[in-house]
């Protein structure tokens, strides 16, 4: 397509400008995709080069090292101890001892079982003493997978520590040969609250994240490649094992055992995106509108209006959501009241009709979300330089023009990243959907799908229903989780690459 | 009167009329805004007023088509006292208190470090956590449950288990307070360092006193979250009433088979849960607003 210079672009009419922008966005997609893959390539190249560099450095250290350094390749911390850095050396030695002890006592077992996820399942065995068959539990696939992964983490950590140990030797050697003194144990301890303070501070949070977030996510990604479910729980009834890409094939096939998973997934995904779109933008614009109303000149009791709205944030969501959900139920307050008044004959199908349910959910979400957005928008609106409004007034701009030309661009400029995160978190907005509708009304066409998908089910609530349902198809939940990740990551990537362009265009500061 | 004078007078009149017009139009628009605001306030408060009113209803315990009770009384609150609610309330309170304390420490460590220190892999670490955040957290519930079960921290012992999980993964939520620390000028740190303070002393003597708003914001949000956590708490307690928090326990009251007996009790429970949290929130509102607005601007 034809590229315009800035000057040419400004000469275009409004419609043409829009078309040009749209066209250039689509034209940039192939380039963006290419860049994405090139970046991946570069990433791996960097890693490869890094590893090669490390190997070279290690070899060099060994070649040029004295006997202390050379022995440290086997006995970690040997060099440190011999050079007087007792504390450091003992730490290395201790880590090595613990690692070897762990690997010998259990790590090796878990690792050796990891490829098969257990060989002997639970079975009935003849017991001579009791003269009867007893049920015997054997390998535990779940534990094998969990501890196998953990062992891999340990090995990785050990290799890293070993590498640090080698580097320490090299550094110590070069320091000593230049005639300087090494740091003592006391210096080391002091550095933990000084120039190495970040390590002290991060140790606890990162351990927590590693154990309770990274490890579980890694584990669950692996589960997507097994047949772990309620009837293969890995211990009590049957082992589970690796199935390769089987689960993904099921998800993407049009006919897996008479069921069409990809159509169901598509339906739920489309509704998830529609929901996220409306939930984000209705709240955004209405919240901004409310904030502007409260900020309007001449409106009194500003504090009171704000407090009323903020009050609703304070009350735990489960109370308000559950209460409102029951209010609109078939025999809930609203319907009973309307019927008592004689205004309607039959209960309105707030939660039983798919379209009603979807619209009601979005409307109630507005009720939930406006207070937050009002707070955010108030803060930002107050920061807009007032002279912009004054000068635009002199130029004859009305309130509407001021809104579209000043307020809105400013808000979008500031809150662009916020909009993105709120879109993705709305995609995963479990509470609102689950507490209001529980995913219902049930959709007859999809009731076969594990966890029986309802019409307001988001991917995340579907996932939850699968894991808690009777069949507990964990592997399916895992596949959905990975797909959710892919969708969120793609949206984030695309929007982030678009954001700078928005910034440049709207840059009026 | 000369022609010019006449003209000037007319112009004056036009101006005055225009002014009047402006005034009336502003009056009308303000009036409209007031109407909208009043309607909004009513809509936003209605459910809470309803909950409050219905919690005092004596004549029936199920859903009815009117709001103001025919017969007032404390029956629902007494029933609440005689149920497991006390235990759930205590559970939630303990969880909220301990989580608030520990989580604040963790979040502050994380955000302060990422804001102030420039170390190798800092960028990579932040990007990694951003990517981690894109995985639905729901997914990890299954394994966390199994791990907690192995540690014997589920069902009746759900309280320590929940605290452990809440606190351990809280480091991921560092964004808002990092944004705050970014606004404290670095020259303060440098000046103190020049005077010979260690990094630890910089943190405790200089940064923390300045960071009071964000500390309060973190404590407040950490304290409020457990009151509403429903999914994971239900998963971990797994049908054992002694391990429920209020959200899980009260959710069950609104099940189809219980709602007939427990609807008004739910309302009473809602009031009891909402009052302390709301009071605390209203007292610390200022800090919350600062955190929320700051967080949005930083992205």
Detailed description of the structure:
The complex is a heterodimer of chains A (509) and B (299). With 509 residues, chain A is mainly α. Helices cover 70% and strands 2% of the residues of chain A. Chain A contains 19 helices and 2 strands. Chain A has a two-stranded antiparallel sheet. In chain A, α8 (197-223) packs across α19 and α12 packs parallel to α17 (430-436). Chain B is mainly alpha-helical and 299 residues long. Chain B has a single domain (84-298), classed as MetI-like (MetI-like fold, Orthogonal Bundle), CATH 1.10.3720. Chain B contains 14 helices and no strands. In chain B, α2 crosses α13 (259-283), α8 (186-194) runs antiparallel to α9 and α10 packs across α14. The longest helix of chain B has 52 residues, at 3-54. Chain B starts with a helix and ends with a helix. In chain B, 40% of the residues are buried. The model of chain B has no long low-confidence stretch (mean pLDDT 84).
Biggest sheet descriptor of chain A: 2 strands, antiparallel
Largest beta-sheet details of chain B: none
Unreliable stretches covering 5 or more consecutive residues of chain B: none
Strand content of chain B: under 5%
Per the CATH scheme, the topology name of the largest domain in chain A is MetI-like fold
Structural class of chain A: mainly alpha
DSSP helix fraction of chain B: over 70%
Shape of chain A from CA axes? globular
CATH class category of chain B: Mainly Alpha
**Euclidean distance between termini CA atoms of chain A:** 31 Å
Question: How many beta-strand segments of chain A?
Answer: 2
Q: Report the average pLDDT across residues of chain A.
A: 83
Q: Span between N and C termini of chain B?
A: 67 Å
Report the portion of residues of chain A in β strands.
Answer: under 5%
- Name given to the CATH homologous superfamily of chain B: MetI-like
Helical stretch count of chain A?
Answer: 19
Task: Give the topology string of chain A: H per helix, E per strand.
Answer: HHHHHEEHHHHHHHHHHHHHH
